[in-house]
């Protein structure tokens, strides 16, 4: 017997035991069916017992499954009581990077609808690298961003769920020649100097993604610049420098600027939901569910064929959750 059993495995078992259907159980838990099956198999290995008889037509409990079910329900009820006493009493601190209708903010709004009894407080760290240390220290609970761009030492203490492949874009002065185009081919940026957060220690994962995108295309990465806070100040600095800025297609509108999608190929910015390993909170479950729901509804994890994304990011974003 293992020294301890992860309650998540018991929750997967109970859902299948009550539904007697893996697809319905996965939908109930807002997880992929592959991930649910993996958790059930892991529980069976840890207990050294077969819990279900699976055929192409039905799922039934084995005698060992019948024996485990009341114990599992009691354990989960005790965990729910504990969460009600402590977990749900504390607000969940969610870093959405910046204000505006970006991916993270949309997931947060949907999670609030799914879990109205729990408090989810927004924070604005402006980058996953900057948020990672706060996550590990417990000053933040959840953030969003390019998980593959974090140092492996940081990733070892964090968990992630793929959320979206965001199409990248370029923010241009409205009188820039390329602003007349509905879409900007990457090749058209050759010879340009483009700002991508260099100098901001909190967004190193974004700057490194830009560095890989620009390499071999004749696009220069703008030198480090002090961090600019606030839309008004950002617009003022951009107007003064007249420098294109690497962004994503959902970037908020800026006065005096034109946002244009990048194409040929379509560069993608990978976004994951990231949290501290071991964190248990019902509002975190709501965030995971909201992210999975939006990803399915809007095909966020179905990138176009003509795409650009680093191999390490594609591997991370392809992992089942």
TrEMBL record:
Q: What is this protein called?
A: LysR family transcriptional regulator
Indicate whether rRNA-binding appears among the record's keywords: no
UniProt keyword list:
DNA-binding, Transcription, Transcription regulation
* Molecular-function annotations in GO: DNA binding; DNA-binding transcription factor activity
Residue intervals of the HTH lysR-type domain? 5-62
What is stated as this protein's family in its record?
Belongs to the LysR transcriptional regulatory family.
Q: Does the keyword Electron transport apply?
A: no
Any Gene Ontology CC annotation: protein-DNA complex
Q: Which domain of life is it from?
A: Bacteria
**Pfam families referenced in this protein's UniProt entry, alphabetically:** HTH_1, LysR_substrate
Read off the lineage from the record.
Bacteria, Bacillati, Actinomycetota, Actinomycetes, Kitasatosporales
């Amino acid at each position: 017997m293992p020294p301890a059993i992860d309650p998540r495995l018991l929750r997967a078992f109970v859902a299948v035991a009550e539904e007697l259907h893996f697809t319905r159980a996965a939908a109930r838990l807002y997880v992929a069916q592959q991930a649910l099956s993996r958790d059930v198999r892991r529980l069976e290995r840890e207990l050294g017992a077969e819990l279900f008889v699976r055929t192409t037509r039905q799922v039934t409990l084995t005698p060992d499954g019948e024996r485990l079910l009341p114990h599992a329900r009691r354990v989960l009820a005790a965990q729910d009581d504990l969460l009600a006493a402590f977990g749900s009493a504390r607000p969940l601190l969610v870093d959405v990077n910046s204000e505006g209708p970006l991916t993270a903010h949309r997931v947060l709004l949907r999670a609030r609808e799914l879990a109205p009894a729990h408090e989810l407080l927004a924070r604005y760290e402006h980058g996953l690298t900057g948020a990672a240390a706060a996550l590990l220290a417990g000053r933040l609970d959840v953030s969003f961003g390019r998980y593959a761009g974090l140092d492996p030492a940081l990733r070892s203490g964090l968990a992630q769920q793929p959320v979206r492949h965001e199409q990248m874009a370029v923010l241009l002065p409205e009188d820039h020649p390329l602003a007349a185009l509905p879409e900007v081919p990457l090749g058209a940026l050759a010879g340009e100097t483009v700002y991508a957060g260099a100098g901001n220690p909190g967004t190193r994962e974004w700057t490194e993604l830009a560095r890989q995108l620009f390499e071999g295309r004749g696009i220069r990465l703008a030198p480090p610049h002090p961090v600019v806070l606030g839309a008004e100040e950002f617009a003022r600095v951009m107007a003064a420098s007249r420098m294109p800025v690497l962004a994503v297609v959902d970037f908020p509108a800026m006065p005096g600027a034109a946002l244009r999608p990048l194409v040929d190929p379509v560069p993608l910015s990978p976004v994951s939901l990231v949290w501290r390993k071991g964190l248990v909170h019902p509002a975190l479950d709501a965030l995971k569910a909201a992210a999975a729901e939006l990803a399915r509804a809007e095909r966020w994890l179905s990138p176009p064929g003509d795409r650009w994304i680093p191999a390490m990011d594609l591997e991370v974003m392809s992992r089942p959750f």
